[in-house]
Amino acid sequence: MSRRFAAPLDAVDTADGAVSAGGTRIEAVKRIVADDPYLGGHYPDFTIYPGVFTIESVHQTVRRWAAERYGPGTAVELTSIASVSFAAPLLPGDTMSIGCDMTSQDDPSSVRVKARCHRADGALAARMTLGLRIDREGGHDDA
Amino acid sequence: MTTLEHADIRRILPHRHPVLLVDRVLEIEPGARIVTTKAVTGSEPCYAGLDENLPSAAYAYPVSLLVESFGQSGAVLWLHSAALKDEPVEGTLIFGSARDVTITGSACPGDVLRHIVEIDRIIGDNAFMRGETWVGDVRIATLGSVLAVVRDGLASDDS
């Protein structure tokens, strides 16, 4: 699968967004697979999805949504991690569900995303608040 | 001032290729501060499978890996300092949390990340750290607080 940005792995399998008055809700799913890139070294004797890859998963969730909404040339940059904490470990065979609530800041290109990542058994794996900049320049189509 | 080479880093950290993201330790003051480097190259897996004719920004080193590289640098400082005191830290090393991380620039293939990490405090199996990441004379990230944790019982085989 080809990509338009450097990334350690495909950190999202599917993503769906819905816009409401209060903001945008995006939900995504990522199945943890031991032979994904980078996981072989984390760690050699047993595999655990690195905590920072949940940040990558949330970032790619917003990228997917932005590419669908504003066109494939849309760039989504991570500008801040206000907070992130990691709880239950994600192991091969786990399915992570990612829920993102996105709100616009004063500058409409900058958004704040509050995300929670859960395992299929309901355990909270990670929660975070990220700042991202969505740059529609280069996206040819506004549809 | 002590330095550590790649062989030393591999003895300290459990991470392996391609997610061992510290190349060299330029300076280390045990218990206090470390300066590390990580070279970014176009041959890393994160640059595989990219489309053709992308803008320069597409080649920015992923923030997730940058933060991991910073955290690993802090872990080298913590674990090496503990070993020097003959108080080795046992268990699975994990990233616990981070706060107040601001990304103000980016690195691309050919750049060398330079992390400066200071230990704020250590409480049991938790190390709180903070610092900055530079490329040349440009600061590209400020990390207000990063928590590294060691936990028992994560590996299925605890032997």
Automatic annotation (TrEMBL), chain A:
Belongs to the thioester dehydratase family. FabZ subfamily. It comes from the Bacteria. GO terms for molecular function: lyase activity. Transmembrane segments: none annotated. This is ApeI dehydratase-like domain-containing protein. InterPro entries: ApeI-like, FabA_FabZ, HotDog_dom_sf. Residues 23-113 form the ApeI dehydratase-like domain. The lineage of its organism: Bacteria, Bacillati, Actinomycetota, Actinomycetes, Kitasatosporales. The keyword Transferase does not apply. Keywords: Lyase.
Automatic annotation (TrEMBL), chain B:
One of its GO terms (molecular function) is lyase activity. The keyword Lyase applies. Keywords: Lyase. InterPro entries: FabA_FabZ (IPR013114), HotDog_dom_sf (IPR029069). It comes from the Bacteria. PANTHER family: 3-HYDROXYACYL-[ACYL-CARRIER-PROTEIN] DEHYDRATASE. Belongs to the thioester dehydratase family. FabZ subfamily. This is 3-hydroxyacyl-ACP dehydratase. It comes from Streptomyces scopuliridis RB72.
